[in-house]
Amino acid sequence: MELKYIYDNYKKLTDQKISIIARIRSNRQGKTVSFMVLNDGTYMDDLQVVYKPEILGYEDAKQARISSIVEITGILTLTPSRPQPFEIQASEIQLLDQAIEEYPLQKKEHSSEFLREISHLRARTRTFQAIFKVRSTAAYAIHKFFQEEKNFTYVTTPIITSNDAEGAGEEFIVTTTESKLNKDYVDDFFAKKANLTVSGQLNGEAFAQAFKNIYTFGPTFRAENSNTSKHAAEFWMIEPEVAFADINDNINLMKDMLVYVVKYLLEHNVKELTFLESQLESGLIEKITKMVNADFKVNTYEEVLKLLQQAIDNGHKFEENNIFFGLDLGTEHERYICEIVNKCPTFVTNYPKEIKSFYMKVNNDNKTVAAVDLLVPGIGELIGGSERESNYETLILRCKESGINPEDLYWYNNLRQYGFYKSAGFGLGFERLIMYVTGAANIRDVIPFPRTPKTLLY
Ligand code: 4AD
Ligand code: MG
Description:
EC number: 6.1.1.22
Helix content: 25-40%
CATH architecture of the largest domain: 2-Layer Sandwich
GO molecular function, one term: asparagine-tRNA ligase activity
Strand order of the largest sheet: 6-9-10-15-14-13-12-11
Bound molecules: 4-amino-1,4-dioxobutan-2-aminium adenosine-5'-monophosphate, magnesium ion
Main location: cytoplasm
CATH superfamily of the largest domain: Bira Bifunctional Protein, Domain 2
Catalytic activity: tRNA(Asn) + L-asparagine + ATP = L-asparaginyl-tRNA(Asn) + AMP + diphosphate + H(+)
Largest sheet: 8 strands, mixed
Strand content: 15-25%
Structural class: alpha+beta
Keywords: Aminoacyl-tRNA synthetase, ATP-binding, Cytoplasm, Ligase, Nucleotide-binding, Protein biosynthesis
Order of helices and strands: EEEHEEHHHEEHEHEEHHHEHHEEEHHEH
CATH topology of the largest domain: BirA Bifunctional Protein, domain 2
Number of strands: 15
Distance between the termini: 38 Å
């Protein structure tokens, strides 16, 4: 008999004899009937199997432990009034592989800390199945948005690179086994210094000058030794770059992208989102539906400072209460603005040039840059972007001011000498987006095998 997946539109299979292979979530014997709950990974809901002593394979079925794999043959019936929407009345059960007794995911609540220690197994739980399904759908929706809706060209930028795109000195250095074994240990990439990329932006800018609209979507690495719930050493970034565009075009693209992706998730992953809402964050669906309705605000950095000062004058206490032009906003400030003042995702524009990267366009006031960050409730910074400095001399100056040797970025600066009229782009932290749409409170829970200072198990 042809094997079916649970996902194979079970409604069409109602009252038919089917055969399916799946993993056991629970197995419980009754006097006259016994029950197995199975999941084959293709569908959020579990499949209940009802079996009786007279079926083929009953003795094995009785002894099958949690996590074992079975093949079930029987009639599929709909059970709309029960938690599982359908079940199988088994006529035969074959125990294909018996699991050992000490399976760590026994049927009870587990802490997320414990589950992180078993990343090779946690994707089998319903919560993680839902999170990683949403992650997969969101990645697909992002490609679809850029390619089908906006006609952007997808560019893969190098993982091993010689630049520090953010100029923040937070790179992982690349070396070789041979060099490591050598007593005269050097950090080298065949005698050159190399690191893992912190951002594909600089290479992306070169391609935007050729294709106008491009985006990257790949892993990036930051040697930030911070144990926060929002930072990982390895995370994925989506970085669109648009030639001849400014900061307002940038804001519009961010909005369009987020609205598209969230709408796509609401259309395709409603089961997962509903489940996550019940497990991780009440009001999750309403929150993200608001995003579809483009509920965003825009504040300049200076407006933000005023709002923070007002809050302090009215008695609010931040850990950092000294508010001045040049202050690098902390997460507490960012969250106050979008959660308490605006109560919606907020774009903050025109930051002081001293606290932003060298490549951002210096505004006419010569003290701010055309940067824009998107802050969202519960997360803080979700997106960072800017219009790029297009003037060659200013860029060289900004490199020097930021402690970068312009010669190290010769090719990047050089782009400004062959016709360069505006360019703008941004970086969306993919994991932070997944946290926002799933309600997961920790970045370690939206990455299949997370890389943070304390986790390198896999
Ligand atoms: O603000 P960032 O550093 O900007 C850039 O890298 C620019 N080159 C982007 C561009 O204009 N093309 O990083 C962008 C986003 C942040 O807003 C945040 O969401 C995410 O990347 N991010 C991190 N996510 C997880 N772990 C970390 N350590 C992160 N650092 C940044
Ligand atoms: Mg940033």
